[in-house]
Design goal:
Blueprint (H helix, E strand, L loop, with lengths): L1 E5 L3 H12 L3 E5 L3 H7 L4 H7 L5 H7 L4 E4 L2 H7 L5 E4 L15 H15 L10 E5 L7 H11 L5 E5 L9 H6 L3 E5 L3 H10 L1 H4 L5 E5 L1 H32 L5 H9 L20 H14 L5 H25 L7 E5 L14 H12 L3 E5 L4 H5 L8 E3 L3 H5 L4 E4 L9 H8 L5 E4 L8 H6 L4 E3 L10
Parallel strand pairs: 1-2, 1-4, 2-3, 4-5, 5-6, 7-8, 9-10, 9-12, 10-11, 12-13, 13-14
Helix pairs in contact: 1-4, 3-4, 11-13, 11-14, 13-14
The structure holds nicotinamide-adenine-dinucleotide.
Length: about 450
């Protein structure tokens, strides 16, 4: 099949790579010239320094005969003559703090596409094409997409919803072995096209292939994300807080007791600063906005959002409250800038809010380190005399008065050895991911004060 992807972000690039690997001819269009150049480079490292997804580089290089990238819309127009399916992979961020989805990117791409579709084969528009929403969109978007197409005089198209369930950091692995594929369509002929797009998975006994209508598909995506977000909020705000409130309760032991109940499950059972990333927050806000617009209450959805926010505020406040730490004039080491391990995505990363907090506290210097996301972070927080980027976590912590661990990169687990054996000073350790939990007793015995999510204050032995 011939498939066009509009938007070459995490979703567009990864989905297109898997489609090419499934034997389809794919064209990927984006307005971001630098991104397209890097993705088209044919060089694994260049590709993955643009979108840090394990396996993306190999997949694009291996399938280079079947995938092309462009910023030139005339290539899109030419491709329309033979295209079978067009995937819309545009960003749908929140507008301010309103909960409403910003559909500008989506609508402007859809309008541009509609104008081009109406002109194909001299206006005859003979070939049937499906337009597929892969972006996470409001539930009634299918109606608006249809309106945009109708207004431009487009004929012979179907509108389908095919939400994306990829997990950043495991996007390729997950897309090559999805647990489910959800296709929402109104007409049998649209389902038919999509079965051919996903033939590799439709025929697989390991993949749950779910056919519903487009509104159910869009709602299912929003609700799945809310369910996961709520699970995280329960871990942070209820289970973690319980472990913080009582001596001699370890978060890890609570975890063992709870996750061995199949009804509770293992996923997301950790303590952290913030459920960040590009999706959970904005999708919960969007769900709340849509429910309220439809005249429903959204109390639990709103509380989940607030509980998530509260976690980081509580953690930072503990420096003063528990350890009497005064931030003014202090040197800070901030480890972990990506919103989670295995990605360079910094959207809604707790470190962004930590940086804003530090700016308000008049600290003297911040040394930042991340194994993958420093370049992304620099676009928001440029290097200055008072804000420098270290090339290793050990360099970042050297002269610090406080060390904050904000991302769960596995390499940070080894940090306790260096802290205990090599630091002459006794900085406050703030572990926002419980990366050093196996060494809290050693750190305490070596004289370090430790504030960790999911633990009461650990005062270092003098
Ligand atoms: N990232 C995830 O983990 C994930 C998972 C599931 C669903 N989603 C959803 O998928 C959608 C895309 O997410 P993403 O993470 O890939 O976003 P992204 O920001 O990484 O990528 C979006 C791309 O669209 C491009 N773009 C913007 N306007 C355009 C236009 N008019 N024409 C062509 N390209 C244009 C941007 O340049 C960018 O490269 C969102 O709705 C998101 O909620 C994301």
């Amino acid at each position: 099949m011939n498939i066009l992807y509009i938007g070459a972000g995490f979703v567009g690039a990864c989905s297109a790579a898997v489609a090419a690997d499934s034997g389809h001819s794919t064209l990927v269009f984006d307005i971001d010239q630098k991104k397209i150049q890097m993705l088209a480079s044919g060089d694994r490292d260049t590709i993955e320094s643009c979108l840090f997804e394990k396996g993306l580089g190999d997949l694009l290089v291996r399938n280079k005969e079947r995938i092309a990238f462009t910023t030139d819309y005339s290539n899109v127009v030419n491709f329309l003559a033979s295209v079978d399916a067009i995937f819309m992979c545009l960003p749908t961020p929140e507008i301010g703090e309103t909960g409403e989805s910003n559909m500008e990117y989506y609508n402007s791409a859809a309008e541009q596409l509609a104008t081009a579709l109406a002109k194909r084969d001299g206006g005859a528009q003979q070939k049937y094409i499906v337009i597929v929403n892969k972006s996470t969109v409001p539930i009634d978007t299918v109606d608006h997409t249809q309106e945009i197409l109708d207004k431009a005089g487009v004929r012979n198209v179907g509108v389908v919803s095919n939400p994306e369930f990829l997990v950043e950091g495991k996007a390729i692995q997950g897309s090559l072995k999805p647990d489910r594929i959800v296709v929402g369509a109104w007409q049998e002929k649209d389902f038919d096209v999509m079965r051919n797009v996903y033939r590799r998975f439709y025929d697989s006994p390991d993949v749950e292939y779910i056919e519903v209508n487009p509104k159910e598909a869009a709602a299912g995506k929003l609700l799945a994300n809310f369910y996961l977000f709520n699970k995280l909020a329960i871990c942070f705000d209820v289970i973690g807080r319980t472990a913080e409130a009582f001596d001699a309760i370890s978060f890890e032991n609570l975890r063992r007791i709870l996750i061995n109940d199949d009804r509770i499950g293992k996923w997301g059972f950790y303590d952290s600063l913030y459920a960040g990333g590009s999706c959970f927050i904005k999708d919960a806000r969007s769900l709340s906005h849509q429910l309220q617009t439809a005249g429903q209450e959204a109390v639990l959805v709103n509380e989940t959002y607030i509980a998530n926010k509260r976690q980081l505020e509580t953690f930072l406040g503990r420096a003063q409250k528990d350890a009497g730490f005064d931030w003014a004039g202090k040197r800070v080491a901030l480890l972990g800038l990506a919103f989670k391990r295995d990605t360079n995505d910094t959207r809604n990363s707790p470190s962004i809010d930590i940086m804003h907090f530090l700016e308000g506290k008049n600290v003297s210097h911040v040394s930042l380190y991340d194994p993958a996301a420093s370049d992304m972070f620099k676009s928001m927080f440029a290097e200055t005399e008072k804000r420098t980027y270290a090339s290793h976590e050990f360099d970042a912590v050297k002269d610090a008065d406080v060390i904050i661990i904000a991302t769960d990169w596995p390499q940070f687990r080894g940090l306790a050895d260096v802290i205990v054996s090599e630091l002459q000073t006794r900085p406050l350790i703030m572990d926002g991911r419980r990366m050093l939990h196996h060494r809290y007793a050693d750190l305490r015995n070596a004289g370090f004060d430790v504030i960790a999510v999911g633990s009461p204050f650990i005062r270092g032995h003098a």
